[in-house]
Amino acid sequence: MEADAGQGAGAPTPLSKERVLRQALALADSEGIDALSMRKLGQGLNAGAMSLYHHVGNKEELLDGMVDLVFAEIELPESGGDWQSEMRAWAVSARGVLARHPWAITLMPSRTTPGPANLRYHEAVTAALRKAGFSVQMATHANWLLDNYIYGAAVQAASLPFADAGELADMIDDVFLPQLPAEEYPYLNESATALMQSDYDPADEFTYGLSLILDALERDRLSAKS
Amino acid sequence: MEADAGQGAGAPTPLSKERVLRQALALADSEGIDALSMRKLGQGLNAGAMSLYHHVGNKEELLDGMVDLVFAEIELPESGGDWQSEMRAWAVSARGVLARHPWAITLMPSRTTPGPANLRYHEAVTAALRKAGFSVQMATHANWLLDNYIYGAAVQAASLPFADAGELADMIDDVFLPQLPAEEYPYLNESATALMQSDYDPADEFTYGLSLILDALERDRLSAKS
DNA sequence: TGCGATAATCGTACGGTGTACGATCCTTAG
DNA sequence: CTAAGGATCGTACACCGTACGATTATCGCA
Fold it and tell me: Which residues are CB-contacts of A204 (< 8 A; sequence separation ≥ 6)?
């Protein structure tokens, strides 16, 4: 009778696709994507599970919407300035977003139709590349390669069981090195030992690879120009 | 009584972890990873669902094993020759394997402990790189970057709703272009139109990006040597 | 003002899931 | 031949996505 009487005469805020998606995103962030069930989602919205189906169609569509919401969080590149810094800022933003929502990358391979935020994102990136002088073909290459890089980084980040350099150093000699006897894995053993001693930070890999790719693309751009 | 009397006096082949994993892989390949349930898996092995738990612990462990089986399919690089061709052959093999088992990449982000095949794979790649003259640090960079590239390509391939160049061309003007009005998405529209007319094959992107990365790594290797 | 239509909500139910538990069988060592 | 141990499996439980129908709330129009 008064379960929804929040403060004062406030209405209980009606359900809407946006509210459902936002709650789903929050739930996936806090409890993991496997814990996202229609019942639990409804609970968080003071609604029954079946009420949600008036706003999302089915769970697949819910997941599609969640992924697109994640894409919407990525800062789009400006265009017209130094294309490398534009792409770098955009890629760093994308990496941060995918790290904040680690479940998103696990959903990506099964979502085959891009949402509006995804289209806007690709439009903006393509625009920046074309304005920097890339041909349609080369812009396509660059687009594919950069997406590839960002997705791959998200997959690797999600599959690593540590978060920062300190944790990694701890894990290397607690759990990794014991599994890497020098006789069976001489090279991995060598690497692990060396990395532990040089406080290696896997987060640096992202910027290293990104620069490598951007430089290579720039070389291609210049050589195609002449 | 005679359900397992195959040909002659053949015993029904006892269950084993390997047999369970192989059947699971076959089932995921043919019906998709979502259709892989313990009951159905048992059925294919003439066993009850609960019998499987004497060989795999739980479903997570089953998935871990399946992913490692996939890694085992990847051809390892030789070492000692031209490192770029070695890495190229290996990467192409990895791409093929992940394309044959599209569900594997969706599992990857959630599997945090590498299996033995995964370790062997990284050992072989690291060996090839070190023997080619890469330092430990640079071999780590290269390892990370190449893994990144392969995983990213698998994610993109899995999320694209077409298989080859012909299908793409068909889809571009049947479904993509109508969704990309030139006013809202001028650049994507331009790209889609241009690509359709030049029978663009997304499979070529893989070799383009791979060469770009290998060349860039070679440059780094040489400049660090001097 | 009242009424019909339309949309939103929700209770219940069905067939599926992973797996805990205990009973059963089958193999093998002594 | 028997005792013991592991492998197998039937049943049960809690949970899932969602089809279906009943119920309620909202709004346009006479």
Answer: none
Q: Mean pLDDT per segment of 10 residues, for chain A of length 226 residues? A: 36 84 98 97 95 96 98 95 97 98 97 96 97 96 98 96 89 94 97 92 95 97 84
- For B206, the 3-state DSSP assignment is helix
Closest listed residue to residue B67, CA positions, set B3, B154, B191, B190: B154
| Contact map slice: A 18-77 vs B, CB within 8 A | none
The residue count for chain A:
226
- Please report the pLDDT score of residue B11 as a whole number: 52
Instruction: Please tell me which of the candidates A130, A145, A187 has its beta carbon nearest to residue B187.
Output: A130
- Which of B59, B107, B143, B159 to mutate to test binding with chain A, by most A CBs within 10 Å of its CB? B159
**Closest CA relative to residue A95, chosen from A168, B211, A87:** A87
Return all residues near A212 (Cβ < 8 A) that are at least 6 apart.
B145, B213, B216, B217, B220
Alpha carbon distance B107, A80 (integer Å): 39
pTM: 0.93
Distance CA B59, CA B64 (A): 9
| Binary contact (B191, A139; C-beta < 8 A) | yes
With both helix axes pointing from N to C terminus, report the angle between A203-225 and B136-159 in degrees, rounded to the nearest 10: 70
Which residue has the least CA–C1' distance to nucleotide C9?
A51
Kindly state the helix (H) or strand (E) to which residue B168 belongs, with its residue range: helix B165-171
CA A127 to chain centre: 21
For the stretch B30-62, pLDDT in tens is 999 999 999 999 999 999 999 999 999 999 999
Q: What's the DSSP call for residue A176?
A: I
